[in-house]
Amino acid sequence: MISFRNHNNRTVEFSPGLNVIWGENGSGKTSILEAIYSLSIGRSFRTSDRKQMIQKEKDYFRIVGKFESQGSKSNVAMSQLKDGRRKITFNDEAVKGFRNFVGRNPVVLLSPEEQGITKGVPAERRMFFDKLFSIASHDYFEALTEFNRVLKQRNSALSAVKEGHQSPTSIHPWNEPLAECAQRIWGMRENLWEKYSNHLKGVVQKLNDNSVDLEGLYSSKALASKEDFLITLEKNERRDIALQRTMSGPQKDDYSFLFNNEDIRQFGSQGEHKLALILIKLAEFKFIQELNDTTPIILLDDVLAKLDFHRSEVVMALLEKNVQTIITTTNLVNVESHGIDVKNTNNMSLYLERPCSN
Description:
Helix 3 packs across helix 4 (138-162), helix 5 (175-207) packs across helix 6 (226-235) and helix 5 (175-207) packs across helix 9. The protein contains eleven helices and 14 strands. The strands form four sheets. A five-stranded parallel β-sheet has the order 8-12-13-3-14, sandwiched between helices. A four-stranded antiparallel β-sheet has the order 4-5-6-7, with helices on one face. Strands 9-10-11 form a three-stranded antiparallel β-sheet. The chain is globular, with a radius of gyration of 22 Å. It has a domain at 107-293: Up-down Bundle (Glutathione S-transferase Yfyf (Class Pi), Chain A, domain 2), CATH 1.20.1050.90. The protein is of the alpha/beta class.
């Protein structure tokens, strides 16, 4: 990591098993997880503006990661300049799009930054599942990318009509490709959701706690056929022009979670939200493991200190044998009290001093 957050020039080598990064808040623990996540997903989980990750008074950052999975090795590098230019390379070849990049070295992140999955608005849950399904399926990633491109064009046409720059006929060329992409996405979402939902049911059953039931629901806005969707677009054209955005399609789908038969977003307690998020992420791990035929790296960002022992046992279920896991904590006691032997020679422990604010 070069000029990345508060890491001026740091190299970290991880154990293939358990790794614990500890130190005071602001020492850069989460930034290391952010670097790993960015090299896996192509973006940060903390900000949508990569320029914010550049160290103060520096002109760029560069992060490089070397990955190995099932005997296959790869290296990923990401650079970001203050002027907005960026570069990502996979095995020293420039990556223009994410199609052949996303999903190669998957990670599962459990962090307070992910609370929007159970607490947030529908867009946050769509973003989570779109990312997850894109990791699992290149076809889904391509369909979603094309849908978003066409949707953006149609919305631009709607705005131009509303402002009097174009006639309503300028909207029509985008309806057919939008309908085609929408039907593809709805079909794949149904299939992928069923697989994910089955894994969620499995981890809830594995919890073996009769007082806990977590169910996921997918609320699709799918129409029976492309023709039906085209009719809907035509019918709602005036409304779409008035709002300057398309109000029908997969971008309006929602996912929800019921904790003991109640919508957790509306009725869940803090403890229920924490437990639900753990189960959701454990199902994510199993889902990726099945569909990608590879084992994700697990990133736990200061999670154990905020959990009681019962819930920490659920987290520990993530720490399966031969799974690389990277944990951050402010104090080693937080992990040692949960039965983690940081002194084991197969594990790695890294202490970070606090040079400056993150």
